TrEMBL record:
Residues 42-168 form the Gfo/Idh/MocA-like oxidoreductase N-terminal domain. SUPFAM superfamilies: Glyceraldehyde-3-phosphate dehydrogenase-like, C-terminal domain, NAD(P)-binding Rossmann-fold domains. This is Gfo/Idh/MocA family oxidoreductase. It comes from the Bacteria.
Amino acid sequence: MKKPINQQDRRDFLKATAMLAGGAMLSSIPLAGAYASGSDTIKIALIGCGDRGTGAAFQALSTKFNIKLVAMADAFQDRLDSSYQSLSSKFGAKIDVPKERQFVGFDAYLKAIPLADVVLLTTPPGFRPIHFEEAVKQNKQIFMEKPVAVDAPGIRKVLAAAEEAKKKKLNVVVGLQRRYQTNYRESMKRINDGAIGDIMSGQVYWNSGGVWVRPRTANQTEMEYQMRNWYYFNWLCGDHIVEQHVHNIDIANWIKNAHPVSVQGTGSRAWRTGKDYGEIYDNHSIELTYADGAVINSQCRHFEGISNRVDESFQGTKGKIYLSGSNQAIMKDYKGKELYNHNTKGNANPYQTEHDELFDAVSKGEYKFSNVDYAATSTFSAIIGRYATYSGQTIKWDEALAANNSLLPERFAWDANPRLMPDANGLYPIAMPGQAKVL
């Protein structure tokens, strides 16, 4: 008997991650009904018209294939309008989205998804499980951005939908673009061949000055304010350890071919302390402990005026490696002999490669990509990191995955209140280690 999704254990994740790391081919069996239209035009729908969504649409339309954008959906009219204008000015006739196929509101995705062959799911991540589930239900090929959820119930929903996607042979590519980046792919080949032995430790970083703030405006409801400032509320973002640092944590899991069995660490609000920053922390430092005893240290922070660092280093029994999103990869043994030094020039843009490879599979009617298992694994590793820093406790994987701690509002409407509300001074409750209940 198949286990219920909330009892998915470490072995299930390890098996799935080993099979699917790097977007490996799953099947060359042609898809049934690869194009809903029955023509050679691949129709796409954009669900989430912010900067990342517009960028994803740009990359999809920049592939060599015959692609048209036929539907757009967003919670906000102004975001949709801005995206439409930007894409239309660049791609002209490839943008075929008249007013009747421009949908606005919380239910806009339900109207746009049925109109396309491939959907781009690029809203704030709190909505990802709902939108992914619907896209699979509608038998669509899928590109979706990372992270894939913000809490344990969301991860379980994503994993359940992923199983259905596999049964239906629906390609799913997830925007953890380092998996599609040449220096990481080439390094992983050498690591898997044993170049630096067993990985025993590592350090992963995303230390930067932070992101945008959108001030509260007159007559905004609390729901609209939080939606506009989604990065600072966990039901929408998951905190920056989840939304942003998931990239680096994903590399830790990839290189270990596993997920952590427990996580402990610390975090706080040290620099971004005002009411404009919602509820999230501005720094997290955690230890990811794996089943073989290896420990990888993870650090992310949003302080202005700091020395930025976004990269990964790992130490094996025979050598070490340094990696970065700027196409660097330097591998040495412990005597200093250089084993590999990746040429940083002329590498393909991994954001574009994601779409090139996805749409190549779709155009050929092939089933190649099921990125969801490793994306869910790495997303949940980051979520557990948040649980650990907020609570001050050591969080075990299996216990956390079974938690029924949904962060989503009871209903989605502009006059509905999110679960987290400000006090009379406009300040939001902040998780206090030793007091916060996260599971």
